[in-house]
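Box S2. Input/output pair 1.
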Amino acid sequence: MNAPADTTPNASSARSLRLAVLLATYMQSANLPLPNAVLRLIQGSLSMTDDQAGWIFTAYLAASAITMPIAQWLAARFGLKRVYQAALAFFVLGLLLATVSSTPLEFIGARIIQGLASGVLAPLSMAIAMETLAPEKRMKFGATWTAIVLMGIVSGPSIGGWIAEHYDWRPIFFVSLPLSTYIFLVVALLLTEKKAAKAPAFDFFGFGTFTLALISLQMLLDRGERMDWFDSPEIWIEALAGGLGLYLFLMHVLTKQAHFLNKSLFRDRNFVLSTIIFFAVGFVLLSTMALTSPMLDEILGYPPDTTGALTIPRGIGLVGAFLLMGRVPERFDRRWFVAAGAGAVIYANWLMLGYSPLMDWSPVAVTGAIQGVGIGMLMPSLTKVAFSTLDPALRPEGTGLFNLSRVYGSTIGVAIVQIFFFNNTQAMHLALGNNVTPYSAAAHFGTASLPLPTLEGLSHLITHQAAFIAVVDQFKILMVAMLVVSPLILFLRKPAAAN
C-alpha cells in the first residue's frame, strides 16, 4: 500500500491502538473454541444432532480461511480503517445472531458470519499494530501477537464454561460486545484512513478456484456422514466441484507467471516441509480440544465450568513454552526444538490412549499441559526454521500461507475426527450390544446393589461406553498424524541464523 509508516499522531495513541488491535486478536481467536465446553447445552437448546455440533467449529474456521487471504487486498482497495470497522460490525452481527438462534442452521449461519469477519480482523490487526512500531521492534511484537492468538484459543472454553455454568450458554457471546465497542471507538478516533492510490492486483481466478476446492472438501466432510456419502447426489456434486476447483487451481499455478500463491515459495525446502508440519499442528491442537471437552461434558458428566477449567493447563503449558522459546539464544539449532516439541505432542496423545471412564480430572490436566508445552516449543521453532532460508521478498506471502496451513489443518482435522468418532461409536455400540444377553445382564446386575436395568438404561450404558472408546480412538488418529509428519524434521536444513 502507498502510505506513510506511522498512522498515529503520537506514541500514546500508538500504544492505545496496539492495545485495541491486540484485544481484537484475542477476541476473534477466543470465539473460535468459546462454545467448546457448553456443547451439551447448545445441542439441547437447539435440538442439534451430534454431527451438526462439529459444524460449530468447522463453519467458523472454514469461513475465516476464505476471507483471510483477501483481507489485505480489501484494505488496499477500500481503505484499511473502513474495512476493519466493517469487519468489527460484521463480527458483532454474528455474535448477536448466535444469541437469538433457535435452530441449528441459524446458529451455524451466525458462526459463519463470525468466521468471515475473523478472517479479516486477524491479519489487519497485525498490519495496524506493525505500522505503529519501529522496524526493529516488529519481530519481537510478532511473537507477542502469536502468543495472544494462542491464549485466546486455549482460554476460550474456560470462559464459556464458567459463564454457562452460572448463567446460560447464550451470554457467552455477550462478553465480546463491550470489547468490540471499545475497539471500534479507538480505531475510529486514532487510526488514519489509508488505501492504495491505484487498485492493487489480485489473482481472483486462483483465489476463487482454491476457495472452491476448499469449501467443497469441507462440505463433503461435514455432510458426508449425514447424507450417507456417495449414495447422495449432493456428495457427488461436492466431490466433483472440489476436484474441478483443485484441477483449475493447479493448472493456473503451473501455467501463469503471477498467481494467488507464488511458485517460488514451493522451491524452498524448509518452508514447504515446515508448512506441512504446521498443518499437522493445527490438525492436532483444535481437534484435541474438540474431542476432550465433549468427552468431559457429555460422557463423563463434568459441569461446564470444570470442563472449561481443564483447558487451562494446556494454555499455561502452551503460552509459557512459547514465551520461553523467545529467550533461547540464536546460536541454538531450532531443529532440535522442533523435534522435541513434536515428541512431546506425540507422547501426550499416547497418554490420552490410557483415558478411562473411571479416571478423575488429573490425567486430562497432565496430558493437556504436556501437549501445550510441546506445541509451545514447536510453533516458534518451526516458524524460525521455515523462514530462515526463504527469500525476504517472499516472506509476506509466505507468512499468509504458513498461517493458513494451520487454519486449514484445524478445519479438516475437526471434520475428520468427527467422522471417525460417529463411525466408531456405531461400530463399538454394535460390538458391545452383541455381547449382551438376558443371562449376562442378570449375572452382572441382578443383585440388591445392582438391580437389573431397564432396556433403555442398558442401551444408554452401552452407548456411553461406545462413545468413550470412540473418543480414545480419535486420539490415536491425532498421534498418528504427528508421527507421519515427524520424519520430515530430518530433512530440514540448519537455519542460517543458528550458525
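Box S3. Input/output pair 2.
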Amino acid sequence: MGSPTFDLPPDTGAPPARRSRRKQARPGELLEAALDLFVSKGYAATRVEEVARLAGVSKGTLFLYFPSKQELFKALVRHVLADRFAEWSLELDNYQDDTASLIHYCYEVWWTRIGATKACGLPHLVMAEAHNFPEIAAFYRQEVVVPGNRLVERILQRGIDRGELRAMDVGYGTTLVLAPLIFCAIAQSSGGLCLPNPQFDVPAFLRLQADTLVRGLAPDAQGALP
C-alpha cells in the first residue's frame, strides 16, 4: 500500500472554515505525535491509541489516515526522511563548488535537518527492533538506506570524475562517509550515552570528520584504498 497524500484544498480566495483547517492539519499532527512516541518508546511499545490521544483525535480518526501502526510508521519515515531524497538529489545536481566544500555542506545539512531533530532517533529505533520486526527493517532499508547510499556514491563519484578525490571503491567510501552520521544519530537518541563528555560538540566533530575525509581521499594522499 502506498503512502497517503495530504494535498491542500484549492485556493478559493476565502479563508477555509475552522473544521476544514483542522481536518487538513490532522495528518501532520498525527505524524508529529507518532514521531514523539516511536522515538521515545520504540516501535513495539507504541500503541496507536497513544498516538491518537497525543494528537488530540480518536483512534478511529487516526485509522482514517493510517490503516495500521505499520502504515503509520511507514508514512512517518517517508515524511521525515525518505521523501527528502528527491530534494537532496536536486541540490547535488545544482551544486557548483568543489567536492571538499560539498562534503562539508552535506554534513552540515544532515545535522541541521536530521541530526539535531527528533528524526535522528529513527535509525536507532530500526536497528534496535530489526530482529523482531524484519518487515520494518526491510522497508527502512529500501526507503532510506539504499537511496542514502546512492546519494553518497554520487557525491564520491563526482569527486573522482573531477579529479578532486582519488579512485576508490565507492561502496567502502560511502561507509566511511556515513559511519560518523550513524554514530551521531545513536549518540543523540541515547542521550549522549556513547559520547566522551556532556560538552561534546557534535557539529565540531562533524567538521573535523569532513576535513579528515577530504584529506584522506585526496588524490595526493599517501596509501591506497582497496
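Caption for Box S3: Residues 81-216 form one domain. The two ends are 41 Å apart (CA to CA).
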